[in-house]
Design brief:
single chain, 143 residues, globular
């Protein structure tokens, strides 16, 4: 893909991440905490992938922590900025499967396992990371 196409792709992924974050907030407000946590995780995963596209690189995988760590090979300076979120990334990665599947948890459903504190953490972490990526890529504003 050309640099111009990759930038456009970056902005599409970033916008989708913003939508996932908004969905997480709505789900939290409606006490759907497992779903809120998953959407916050997705918001960050897609946002970090948007940064990969912005730098003409190809992201792979679903681990936010790995996407951040692997960015060291793309741009060391940006990696240093992202690496400060490694702790949040590690915790968000834990939300990828058990928030969605009842067999990801022993004898309970995701709705039983996650509460408002989990939603608040995941949304706050997503907001911090999205703000940093937005600062780095400066996507165009939608009217």
């Amino acid at each position: 893909m050309s640099h111009k196409k990759n930038r456009e792709e970056a902005f599409r992924w970033f916008a989708t991440g913003q939508g996932d974050l908004e969905a997480a907030r709505i789900l939290k407000d409606n006490q759907k905490h497992a779903h809120a946590c998953f959407n916050a995780q997705q918001a960050v995963e897609k946002t970090i992938k948007s940064l990969w596209y912005f730098y003409d690189a190809d992201p792979w995988g679903h681990s936010i922590l790995k996407l951040i760590r692997d960015f060291a090979g793309v741009d060391a300076g940006v990696f240093a900025l992202l690496n400060k979120f490694a702790g949040d990334a590690r915790k968000l990665d834990r939300l990828y499967i058990p928030t969605r599947y009842p067999n990801g948890l022993p004898d309970i459903t995701p709705d039983m396992a996650y509460d408002e504190d989990d939603s608040l953490f995941s949304i706050a972490a997503a907001e911090k990371i999205l703000a940093e990526v937005e600062r780095l890529i400066k996507p165009p504003r939608n009217p």
